[in-house]
Design goal:
This protein is of the alpha+beta class. Helix content is 47%, strand content 19%. It starts with 5 loop residues before the first helix and ends in a 6-residue tail after the last helix.
Length: 255
C-alpha cells in the first residue's frame, strides 16, 4: 500500500480545522490543536497562504480559509449542477438533431467535456467524458473564449495549433471569429479541428449571467451542413434552444 504524504495530510488537517469551529485561529492555536511544532505549523500555513487556500487577517493576525479554496469548491458545484440541469435537454437535443451532443467547460487552457450524449443510432461510439478539446478551433472553445474573459485570455496566450488547413491560428483572425460569435450568439467548427466533422455550439449562463459552459452538436459535415457547406439553420436553432433551456434551469431569467 502506498504511503500517504505527511505534509499533505497535515495541510488537509489545517484546512479542516479552519473550516470548523471558530474559523479564525492563530498560529499557536493551530499548532496546539494539531499537536504540531510552531515552526512546522507556520511552514504549512505559509505554503497554503501562498497558494490562496489560507488568508491572514491584518488586524488580528489570525488565519481563515482563502478565496482560492472557495473558488475551487464553487467550480465543482457549478460543474455538477450544470451537468445535472443539462441531462434532459441534451438528451432531447441528440434525439432532435440525430447527432452527438457535448457539454463543455473551461479547464486550464482547454475545454473539458463533462457530458456526452451518443448519436441516436446503432453506430459504435466512444464516450468522451473527461476528454479535452482546444479553445481556439472547436465550436465549444470559441463560445467559451467569446463569453468568458478567462477563457479568452487563455486562448489568446496559448499556442494555437494547426489541426487542418481550415484552422485559424492568427491572433487577429481569431479575435474576428470571437467578435462574430458574440454577434450571432453561437460558434461553428467546420473541419477546423477534425476532417469530415462539423459542430455548432452556444453558451450557457447561470443565475448571475456568467458563462459557465457551452453545449454543442457534432456530426459528419454532410449531415450538419447543407450542400453549400453552411451549417443547417435547424441545427443552429436546436443548439441555441438547448443552451437557453439549460440557462433557464440554472436560474438565468434573461431567457
Amino acid at each position: 500500500m502506498a504511503r500517504n504524504i505527511q505534509s499533505l495530510e497535515r495541510a488537509a488537517a489545517v484546512l479542516r480545522l479552519l473550516a470548523g469551529g471558530e474559523r479564525r485561529l492563530g498560529l499557536s492555536e493551530i499548532a496546539s490543536a494539531l499537536e504540531l511544532a510552531k515552526g512546522t505549523a507556520h511552514g504549512l500555513i505559509r505554503t497554503l497562504q501562498q497558494e490562496g487556500f489560507v488568508e491572514q487577517e491584518t488586524a488580528t493576525g489570525k488565519y481563515t480559509l482563502g478565496a482560492e479554496l472557495l473558488r475551487l469548491g464553487n467550480s465543482y458545484l457549478d460543474v455538477h449542477e450544470l451537468r445535472a440541469r443539462a441531462l434532459v435537454w441534451t438528451d432531447d437535443l441528440a434525439r432532435s438533431s440525430g447527432e452527438s451532443v457535448y457539454l463543455g467547460v473551461l479547464h486550464q487552457q482547454g475545454v473539458l467535456i463533462v457530458h456526452h450524449v451518443f448519436r441516436p443510432d446503432d453506430s459504435r461510439q466512444v464516450l468522451e467524458v473527461g476528454a479535452m478539446q482546444p479553445l481556439h478551433c472547436t465550436a465549444l472553445g470559441k463560445v467559451l473564449a467569446a463569453y468568458d474573459p478567462v477563457a479568452h485570455s487563455e486562448a489568446a496566450d496559448a499556442d494555437r495549433k494547426t489541426f487542418t488547413e481550415r484552422t485559424v491560428t492568427g491572433l487577429e483572425e481569431f479575435e474576428e471569429v470571437l467578435d462574430l460569435t458574440r454577434g450571432r450568439g453561437w460558434a461553428s467548427d467546420v473541419e477546423e479541428t477534425w476532417e469530415g466533422l462539423a459542430s455548432v455550439a452556444a453558451p450557457i449562463h447561470d443565475r448571475r449571467r456568467m458563462p459557465v459552459g457551452a453545449v454543442a452538436v457534432t456530426g459528419a459535415v454532410e449531415r450538419v451542413c447543407d450542400e453549400e457547406g453552411q451549417l443547417r439553420p435547424h441545427m443552429i436553432a436546436a443548439v441555441r434552444d438547448c443552451a437557453r433551456a439549460v440557462s433557464r434551469d440554472l436560474g438565468n431569467g434573461r431567457f
